[in-house]
Amino acid sequence: MAVPAPVPAPVREPAGAGARAAARTPLVTYTLIALSAVVLLAGPSFGLNPRYGTGNARVCAEQRFEQHWGAVPAELLADRPLDAGRLAALPPAVPGCTLSPAPHKIPFLSVLSSLFVHAGWLHLVGNLLFLYVFGPDLEERLGRLRFLLFYLGVGYLATYGWALAEADSAESARALVGASGAIAGVLGGYLRLYPRARVTALVPLLLFLPLRFPAWLVLGLWFALQWWPLGPAVPGVAYLVHVIGFSAGWLAMWAAGLRQGRRARPTADTLSRTPHTGAEE
Predict the structure, then answer these.
(1) Is residue 23 classed as helix, strand or coil in its secondary structure?
(2) Which residue has the higher pLDDT, 262 or 259?
C-alpha cells in the first residue's frame, strides 16, 4: 500500500437557478462517487464491516483486500497473478499477516477495480472532492458516455504507465489503489477546456484567506508540484500516476479538437491541502 501526495480538497459553490437549468445532472460523476463510497464502506478500510474483524486482523484484511483488488505492476506486465513466493516477499502489514495467491484474478480487470478501492476515508475524500468539483463540467461538455470512457481510459493509461515505470523496482509487487490517475485526467481536461475559470483557494497567511485565481494557475501549480517529488524516491507515493493522468487528460481534450468554452456550472472552490492516501495514488 502506498500513500500519495497531499492535494487541495475542493468544494462546490451553490448553483444558481440559471446554472441548474442549463446543466444536466452529472449522473456519471455521482455514480462514480457513490460506487467508491460503497466499496469503502463494505471493505475493511473503513472498519464498519464485522467480517474483517478489528485491530491487527482488520489491518491484515485491508492489505489482502488491496492486494487482491488493486493493480499490481508485476501482474499487469506479466498478465498473470503473483505466485505464493512473490507474495511472501512482501512486508506484512502486521506481524503474522500472510497473503494468499489469487489464481482467478484477471490483471487487466484489476485496473478497473483498483479505481474504486481506497485506503481509508481520507484517501476517498481527497480524491472524490476533486471529481465532485471538476467532473460535472467535463461530463456536461463530453456527454455521459464519452465522459465515462474518458475517465476509465485515462485511469487505465495512468496505471499501466506507472506499472512500466515500476517494472524493475521493489514496488512492482505492491498493489496500486485509488482513482487519482483518472481524476488527474479530469483536472487536465478541465484545464484544457476552462483555463480562465475562476477558482477560490484558501491561502494560509496567518489565517486562511479566500483568494480567487484562474484555473490555469491553480491546476498548473498542482501539476508542477507532482513533478517535484519525482527526483528522490518517496516510498508509497505514486506521483507519476498523477503526472501521466493529468497529461493524458489535457492531451485527450486537445486531440479531440474541443475548444475552450464557458461553463454551465458554478465556479469551483479549492480549500486547504488535505491528505489523499492509498497503494496508491
Answers:
(1) coil
(2) 259
Looking at residue 252, its pLDDT comes to 94
User: Helix/strand/coil (H, E, C) string of 146-201?
Assistant: HHHHHHHHHHHHHHHHHHHHCCCCHHHHCCEECCHHHHHHHHHHHHHHCCCCEEEE
- Amino acid identity, position 279: A
Q: Are 225 and 4 in contact (CB under 8 A)?
A: no
198-205, strands of its sheet edge to edge: 7-12, 268-274, 198-205, 207-214
pLDDT tens per residue, range 159-199: 999 999 888 887 789 999 999 999 999 999 998 998 888 76
**E strand or H helix at 86:** helix 84-88
- Residue predicted with more confidence, 201 or 101: 101
What span, in angstroms and rounded, lies between the C-alpha atoms of 44 and 207? 37
Look up residue 71 and give its amino acid: A
Classify each residue of 228-240 as buried b or exposed e, where b means 16 or more C-beta atoms within 10 Å of its C-beta: eeeeeeeeebbbb
